[in-house]
Design goal:
alpha/beta, Rossmann fold, two-stranded antiparallel ribbon, 14 helices, binds nicotinamide-adenine-dinucleotide, binds the ligand O=C(O)C(=O)C[C@@H](O)[C@H](O)[C@H](O)COP(=O)(O)O, binds zinc ion, 3-dehydroquinate synthase, metal ion binding, zinc, metal-binding, DHQ_synth_fam
């Protein structure tokens, strides 16, 4: 597939989507880079670090690797500080280039390190989860979490390239595949009804990591995200639609403690909650709400939200970045394939919470995910 280009205020950058791209990564490295800094975690570095370093060797540039602990709970200012410590101790200059090798946690944190080290150095996104390949590696949202909220400390800062190697998904655990598919569905819901229908028809192939289905889905999501980011890089308007399901989802992540539910699991549940609220506020037909619920279940993600208590739910959602003047703004669906961002009456939100919250634990949901995947549907 030809690269997908993302147009930004600082020029454009390519998204390369190719099996085996990791072996050809040298093609994306800026020629004047003085040093290369791989930022990864023990799991991903163990699987793909050696391949990456071997692919970089012909460039003859010094390569260093910074390993941070794995998991959402380490996407924090504390971990970021350990990255700065190493970079400063190594006296990296402004022409050093960071290579973010991992999922969205690594990509968001390494991107923020790049945005802030010496006021900004270049970085490359090398996403290794489905979620990172379809969403987080594109568009330049970089951040770490704060105990009081998700992605609260960050910057818009674009990478110089995104290199997607579909082959690396073969080692991804099933639960992470399900989580990544939540963001895939999101793209259909907000922008492309035909793509949503394609996801419904191809869900068994997607959960089974069929290479052709994955390549199509990753390419389509990257195209859709590139269009939105090119039009509204810093979320002054349109880009907020990419937050469908996230007002609810981020509340779940922060409310349960970061890492209890995966980001994609929380978003999947949030998609159902946003659809239910859309039914109440914008008359989204009941059959469309049911289609969202069924697809979320089919990818193996939870469709029942945890009981955080109504007050906590509202308090957490109040802290969302889309809130303006104290008014929570939600991404809502007038229909499948269309999205708007607006406030919603409190009683409709309360009804939505009453109808979508239940006595649910992620263990139960994960077991169902495994059963769904094993039965192929
Ligand atoms: N910047 C954005 O636009 C954006 C968009 C969506 C999500 N995000 C962020 O992304 C994060 C979630 O990312 P994620 O779902 O990739 O989670 P993650 O980065 O935690 O990765 C998931 C797990 O998979 C492992 N892993 C990664 N690649 C692997 C591979 N190829 N084989 C085996 N194991 C592998 C990781 O070590 C980790 O344990 C959240 O913090 C979320 O807020 C950001
Ligand atoms: O790229 C975007 O814009 C998104 O909103 C994509 C989301 O999937 C992603 O989770 C993002 O990090 C959420 O952004 P936030 O501004 O709500 O933290
Ligand atoms: Zn997301």
């Amino acid at each position: 597939m030809a690269p997908v280009n993302v147009a930004t205020s600082a020029g454009q950058y390519p998204i390369h989507i190719e099996p085996g791209r990791l072996q050809r990564i040298a093609q994306s490295v800026p020629g004047n880079a003085t040093r290369l800094v791989i930022i990864s975690n023990p799991v991903v570095d163990g699987l793909y670090g050696a391949v990456l370093r071997q692919a970089l060797a012909p460039l003859g540039k010094p390569v260093m690797t910074i390993i941070v602990p794995d998991g959402e709970s380490f996407k924090s200012l504390d971990t970021l500080n350990t990255i700065y410590d190493r970079m400063l101790a190594e006296k990296l200059d402004r022409r050093a280039v960071i290579l973010a090798l991992g999922g969205g946690v690594i990509g968001d944190m390494a991107g923020f390190a790049a945005a802030t080290y010496m006021r900004g150095i270049r970085y490359m996104q090398i996403p290794t989860t489905l979620l990172a390949q379809v969403d987080s590696s594109v568009g330049g949202k970089t951040a770490v979490n704060h105990p009081l909220g998700k992605n609260m400390i960050g910057a818009f800062y674009q990478p110089v390239s995104v290199d997607i190697d579909i082959d690396v998904l073969r080692t991804l655990p099933a639960r992470e595949v399900s989580a990544g598919l939540a963001e895939v569905i999101k793209y259909g819901l907000i922008l492309d009804a035909a793509f949503f229908e394609w996801c419904e028809r191809n869900v068994a192939q997607l959960v089974a990591l069929d290479a052709d289905a994955l390549a199509y889905a990753i390419g389509r999501c990257c195209e859709l995200k590139a269009q939105v980011v090119s039009e509204d890089e810093k979320e002054t308007g349109l880009r907020a639609i990419l937050n469908l399901g996230h007002t609810f989802g981020h509340a779940i992540e922060a409310g349960l403690g970061f890492g209890t539910w995966l980001h994609g699991e929380a978003v999947a549940c949030g998609l159902v909650q946003a659809a239910v609220l859309s039914g109440k506020v914008l008359d989204l037909p009941a059959e469309d709400i049911e289609r969202v619920r069924q697809l979320v279940r089919a990818i193996g993600c939870p469709d029942v939200a945890p009981d955080l208590g109504q007050d906590s739910w509202l308090d957490l959602m109040q802290g969302d970045k889309k809130t303006e003047g104290g008014e929570i703004r939600y991404v809502l669906l007038p229909g499948i394939g269309q999205a708007v961002v607006q406030a919603a009456p409190l009683d409709k939100v309360q009804e939505t919470l009453e109808e979508t919250v239940g006595n649910v634990t992620i263990e139960r949901e994960s077991a169902r995910a495994r059963e769904t995947i094993a039965s192929g549907g």
